[in-house]
Amino acid sequence: MRVLVTGGAGFIGSHVGAALTAAGHDVVCMDCLHPAAHGDDPEHDPGLVVADVRDRDAVESVLRGVEAVVHQAAVVGMGVDLDDLPEYVSCNDFGTAVLLAAMARAGIRRLVLASSMVVYGEGAYTCSRHGNVRPAQRTWEDLAAGRFEPRCPVCAHELAPTLVSEEARLEPRSVYAATKLAQEHLASAWARESGAAAIALRYHNVYGPGMPRDTPYAGVAAIFRSSLERGEPPQVFEDGGQRRDFVHVTDVARANVAALAAADGWVGLRPYNIASGEPRTVGDMASALAAGFGGPAAPVVTGEFRASDVRHVTASPDRARRDLHFVAEVPFAAGMAEFATAPLRS
User: Fold this and answer.
1) Candidate list 120, 125, 176, 203, residue with the active-site label
2) In the predicted model, what is the mean pLDDT of residues 306-318?
């Protein structure tokens, strides 16, 4: 199958393109080489189509002969501040709209969309008295006092985190998260109106070789690795007890191959959590990286916080296992040991 991978020069996109090629697909990679991810003068593969998904003419040209699209292109991460808001919306949402409209005109009926666990906001929680509840918003006063665990909105007792399913309430809490949810909504409307199949892969915390270094748009794993390369210990916010699911990029690439095969013969959008199924704390991850790198020191737990951060978000991978036959293969310890010395992208 001839497949277009948008964002094909990026961290995840490059792994996805390689996995699709290894699976026998004819892959076309397109990327605008956005400076937030690639710097000001990046080198690139000569076969890469350098173009922006916001450019209608360029998108229509690259879609000729394409049978399916794997849409990875996006500005990611927390960004710098709200001045980034227009660029996030333009790249992620307007770009997706241009792409989907061109796919409809070209008669392409198969899409795999890179979504994110950030669409959930806070994860799932239970109260010992009131069962499953949505946590109350963490207050600045609690955070400043080191009381980081979310509380029950009824009795104010601390909550216990559980796994999030794809049916969970969606409550994005950052600009990036809002744009990822908008991408899902746009893809769902496109699928219904064009009689197409779309799969949204809600990636959890992806890490692995090729992550960009020293950028506010990178994930926390890359930020910690960059600190270690500078000879500095990772700076861990809050108390380091935030729970996440760290999934290796090669597993994420395999999930895209599986999703492409599954996106056929039905209409609409189906979301899937792409996670390892092994929740860990941010402190665990920082310690594993520091140990694998060989120093220079143990991570420093700073107690600092950001009001927009969520405390715990970990997911059930059951639906992806059942429908896509996808199970993550890289264990946490082995993956972090490899990533501790793997090359990062400048």
Assistant:
1) 176
2) 92
